[in-house]
Amino acid sequence: MKCVYCKADVLNGDPITVSGLGPAHRGCFENSLVEQRVFRHLNLRSLPDADLRELLDMAKMEMNVREAEHQSVDLWEDDVLFC
After folding, report:
1. Which 8-state DSSP code applies to residue 77?
2. Residue 52 Cα distances to 16, 18, 80, angstroms
3. 29 neighbors 19 (Cβ within 8 angstroms)
4. Helix, strand or coil, per DSSP, at residue 39
5. What are the pLDDT digits (tens) for 35-55?
6. Residue pLDDT, tens place only, 12-31
7. Which residue of 36, 39, 43, 74 shows the fewest CB atoms closer than 10 Å?
8. Burial letters for 4-39: b for 16+ Cβ neighbours within 10 Å, e otherwise?
């Protein structure tokens, strides 16, 4: 069986079956996803500019929320309350 991307024998590498395409090397498939800019079945190249900007804004907001949840607030820093 030949890889649908590089046409080499898949049994010599790390074989997978790509739905709708056929057998492939895992590395060839991953390289293809990077080239196509696909993330979790979302083809970023197919998004209009406005949608891509909105996705970027939403991702930044989510990252900010997650970072804020992990930061601890030190209420007693270096203040001396009683002497």
Report:
1. S
2. 30, 27, 50
3. no
4. strand
5. 888 888 888 999 999 999 999
6. 778 999 989 999 999 999 99
7. 74
8. bbeeeebeeeeebeeeeeebbbeebbeeeeeeeeee
Closest CA to 1 of 19, 20, 23: 23
- Burial (CB count within 10 angstroms: exposed 0-12, middle 13-18, buried 19+), residue 60: exposed
Mean pLDDT value of segment 53-59: 96
Which 8-state DSSP code applies to residue 71? Answer: P
Distance from C-alpha of 32 to C-alpha of 37, rounded to nearest angstrom:
8
**Whole-prediction pTM value?**
0.53
CA angle 40/31/23 to nearest 5° reads 85
- Partnered with residue 78 across adjacent β-strands are none
